[in-house]
Sequence to fold (246 residues):
Amino acid sequence: MCPGRGGPAMKLSARLVVVVVAVLGLMIVAATDQILPATSAYQAQMRVWLAARATGLAPLFLVALLVVLGILLSHPEQTQWKLAKRIYPWHESLWVFAIAFLAVHVVSLVIDPFAGVGIGGALVPGLSEYRTAPVALGVISLYALLVTALTARYTRLLPTGWWLKLHRLAGVVLALAWVHGVFAGTDTLSLAPIYWGIVLAVVAAAAHRYWIVRRARTAQRQPHPSLLVPIPQHLEESHVQPHPAP
Fold:
């Protein structure tokens, strides 16, 4: 409804923005071949490979960002952090973008006749002819991501406390996806700074959270100044003075 007619104005949430951007990204990828068609069979083959590689790296970055944001949002002082309310919607919605890229990644590998993955290898761990073990880890990480995202989205359908336990699988998802990208790609050496940058970002976020938790525990152990009972001066002096020798 239009605002001028008394109806409520439509507000674009962060989740809706992510969905729209993901759809537009998929439309751009699909339209690229129509705007700039390949001039040779090799160029057409490389386009499919580049699409598969790019749409495989993009969700790796997004999952790493989700894990880093999740670590930062889980510290004890999260309620006092002013940026938490702005960051949380992105932590809640970026999984849609990651799954959209993963869908393109899987389709690109399936339609690429030279990839050696096929629809079976893309959906069932261990059926890929190309680097069976690394591709299998990628398939497992895909399903783990779906479990982590969907259980976090529909927490009311789970018993109390289960969603948090399943949500912590995000670290496993990132680890499996990282190993998959390193050992399944043929350009790992050229992308080594990116892979190690992801590791450093996660380690830095975990170290920051550990430091905050340790600082909070230390503060809890120390008694509050208002609870300290002052010692009378005559007792303090008698305690300091040494006893006379016999």
In short: DSSP finds nine helices and no strands in the chain. Confidence is low (pLDDT under 50) at residues 1-12.
